[in-house]
Amino acid sequence: MSSCPPAIHEILDNCWDENPNLRHSFTKIRDLLTKNLGRMGDNIIDYLIESMEKHAAALELEADNKMKMLEEEKQRSDDILSHMLPKTIAHALSHGIHPPPEVFESTTVQFSAVDGFSKLASGAKTPHNIIRILNALYTTCDFAIENYDVYKVETVKDAYMIVSGLPVRNGIRHADNIASLAFHMRRNVSLMELPVEILTDDSTKLRLRVGIHSGPCVAAIVGTRLPRYCL
């Protein structure tokens, strides 16, 4: 750098400034180089500046695309998490916060299951048909709960567990929500007609058994690899 003119050396130092806000713009650099190298260097300078501008624009576009992809992926992850957990819990976990167990003084829990499911499953001919039955059952119940202030906790085989009064407290309305939903679910499930080709007996109707209990409840996140919101 000993042979480099001081003015050019100053321009180079400025380009390496740790604070990007203090660095010259490409237009400013062009003007300074033209001023210090003279008109004979215009073609070379213009070419270098143009190349640098194109490269910078390409890098900026690539960075924007990467950031957009990252945001879209994060949104997909957040959407999946919000379907697995209450939104408030999912939001906390996405920000690295592990919510402590919480006591809810007034809630109502409902368990439901298909009457005679074991017999039904044994007559379903193939495991694939059992999955078809469960999918139809869960879809029917999922559709029913959309109109009520309830939270779907989990499903195990044909058992379907929901709760009202948490994770958002709703005063004394939890019992009414669950009771009304129970009638709604029983009616909808009774109207389901299973394809006769997946069964071996003559029954194509399902009957839902429902159990309800009201009282205090503790809810918390359990596990780390696949966290569950357990009551």
UniProtKB/TrEMBL annotation:
Q: Which residues form a coiled coil?
A: 49-76
The protein's predominant localisation is membrane
Q: How does it sit in the membrane?
A: Single-pass type I membrane protein
GO annotations under biological process? intracellular signal transduction; receptor guanylyl cyclase signaling pathway
Q: Which GO terms describe its molecular function?
A: adenylate cyclase activity; guanylate cyclase activity; nucleotide binding; peptide receptor activity
UniProt domain Guanylate cyclase: residue ranges: 108-231
Cross-referenced CDD domains: CHD (cd07302)
Return the EC number: 4.6.1.2
Ranges that cross the membrane: none
Q: Which UniProt keywords apply?
A: cGMP biosynthesis, Coiled coil, Glycoprotein, Lyase, Membrane, Nucleotide-binding, Signal, Transmembrane, Transmembrane helix
Cite the InterPro entries for this sequence: A/G_cyclase (IPR001054), Cyclic_nucleotide_synthase (IPR050401), HNOB_dom_associated (IPR011645), Nucleotide_cyclase (IPR029787)
Query: Which is a Pfam family this sequence falls into?
Result: HNOBA
Q: Which domain of life is it from?
A: Eukaryota
Compartment(s): Membrane
Which PANTHER family does this one have? GUANYLATE CYCLASE 32E, GUANYLYL CYCLASE
Name listed for the protein in its UniProt record: guanylate cyclase
